[in-house]
Design goal:
FAD/NAD(P)-binding domain, 2 domains, four-stranded mixed β-sheet
């Protein structure tokens, strides 16, 4: 490829902070709140003008992984900062009661829908009241590092290029952008290049709730099959999720699946992202036509909103001292360095379908602190969907509940490590666990 030389220039240091969080999705929201509450001067950088990450920008509008089925009883197992978000959403009238999700063989978990607008407002309030310096419209583009130590993050804004220095950094970009710039090892997809397929979400208004609930949603899979067989529709994903939002007449549709000639789209690739937006919107319109024509309850509905961006499930995953595996999840495994719990099934988005493997028995596993520790960078933590997991581990750990749990732990750990003058990896994990428990987090039975 042809290159040109960019002239060297001095970049202004526009801010110096103690903990710098990159990305305002579920992980970043919890990380920044926890770091600030732990007494660290904290700044959060977000490229959009609102928080929520995939939860708002991709219009996920539903919390998975907050609940687990503990010996058959569905209970909330992620607390702490997550509770503060739920409380605010409920006060805004933007939270539905949790619903039970049941597998084909009768195993269960829970999920909870919320309103997109309420989530933005609730998380603004949460971070501002915690004292976080939230910097919207800030695209992080690189890092200045010295021998495995991050000195600064370089940003681009409407006001130009700049640098922000910090003592501790937390990468909650979802794509492990900062970890990659700092030279930390990562994996992207499986050995065959597979990454979970993305989805363009949409929401629908004026749904006849009772009919859609009683007849439409239960028949969705067979109706998709009939529509495809008729030759009148092109619906690449054989099964999907349609569910009501906080208000009965508004539903979300998690139906589309974007591929490039069958291959998954890479959400960390500029060209693939652009392709996926246009293809996603095209597919969403086709699925909506199908819903209106063929699914009971949708005849008089209209398309309320298409997600601002294509929903990306998986890109880079850091390789830390331990990678949480799918087996750990299904075995409900405990870890001595637990910083939270999760009970979401393995949810694998394969070509044309989604494969589910639910947890049995106790119904949740512990999340080790080591999932948040990158290799070779001494002042960085990583939380969220790009944490240290195997690919099948990520198929469970990427959802909002565990991202909140990891984020709270990473934020607390960053503040503690900074105060102690140590690297996060050298932190007294028992002290971190005591602090998390004191702050309302549920980390499982670790004897804290
Ligand atoms: C279509 C779809 C449906 C899903 N359904 C559900 C569901 O029902 N329930 C559920 O709980 N989970 C669901 N998930 C998964 C879940 O939403 C995500 O995995 C979760 O949001 C990950 O959180 P995160 O904080 O790690 O990253 P993200 O949510 O991806 O947030 C990362 C944030 O960082 C910002 N950012 C990234 N790079 C930069 C940069 N260089 N500079 C500045 N800002 C940057 C982004 O704008 C974003 O706000 C779904 C995901 C998709 C795609």
């Amino acid at each position: 490829m042809r290159t040109i030389t960019e002239p060297a220039r001095q970049v202004p240091v526009v801010a110096e902070t103690e903990v710098l969080v990159l990305g305002g999705g579920p992980a970043g929201i919890a990380a920044a709140t926890a770091a600030a509450r732990s007494g660290a001067r904290t700044m959060l950088l977000e490229r959009y003008g609102f928080l929520g990450g995939m939860g708002t920008a991709a219009m996920v509008t539903n919390f998975c992984g907050l609940h687990a089925s503990i010996n058959g009883s569905v209970q909330q197992i992620v607390h702490g900062v997550a509770d503060d978000i739920l409380d605010r959403l409920a006060k805004l009238g933007g939270l539905r009661e949790p619903h039970v999700v049941t597998s084909a063989d009768g195993l269960k978990t829970g999920a909870q829908a919320y309103d997109n607008a309420a989530y933005k407002v609730a998380t603004d309030d949460l971070l501002v009241s915690a004292g976080v310096d939230v910097r919207f419209h800030t695209f992080a583009v690189d890092a200045v590092t010295d021998n495995g130590h991050i000195e600064a993050v370089l940003i681009e804004t409407k006001s130009g290029r700049a640098a922000i220095t910090a003592d501790m950094f937390i990468d909650c970009s979802g794509d492990a952008d900062l970890a990659a710039w700092a030279g930390a090892p990562f994996e992207k997809g499986g050995s065959d290049g597979f990454m979970a397929y993305p989805t363009m979400m949409f929401r629908i208004a004026d749904v006849d709730h009772d009919v859609a609930m009683g007849e439409g949603a239960p028949q969705l899979k067979s109706l998709i099959a009939e529509a495809n067989a008729s030759g009148e529709y092109t619906l690449p994903r054989k099964a999907g999720i349609i569910r009501p939002q906080t208000h009965d007449s508004e539903w979300r549709a998690n139906l589309t699946q974007i591929s490039r000639d069958g291959a998954p789209v890479d959400g960390s690739d500029w060209d693939d992202l652009g392709y996926a937006e246009i293809e996603g919107r095209k597919q969403a319109i086709e699925y909506f036509r199908f819903l209106k024509d063929r699914v009971p309850g949708f005849a008089d509905a209209y398309m309320l909103e298409l997600a601002p961006q294509i929903g990306i499930r998986e890109t880079r995953r850091i390789v830390g001292p331990y990678q949480l595996t799918g087996k750990d999840v299904l075995d409900c495994r405990d870890f001595e360095d637990s910083i939270g719990c999760s009970g979401w099934p393995l949810e694998t988005h394969v070509l044309g379908d989604v494969e589910w493997k639910f947890l049995a028995g106790r119904g949740y596993h512990q999340i080790p602190f080591s999932t948040t520790l990158p290799t070779g960078v001494d002042n960085l933590l990583v939380a969220g969907r790009c944490a240290s997991t195997t690919q099948d581990g990520q198929a469970s750990l990427r959802v909002s509940g565990p991202c909140f749990a990891m984020g709270q732990a990473a934020g607390t750990a960053a503040a503690m490590a900074r105060t102690a003058g140590t690297a996060p990896a050298e932190l007294d994990v028992a002290a971190l666990q005591r602090q998390l428990a004191a702050d309302g987090a549920f980390i499982g039975d670790t004897g804290v």
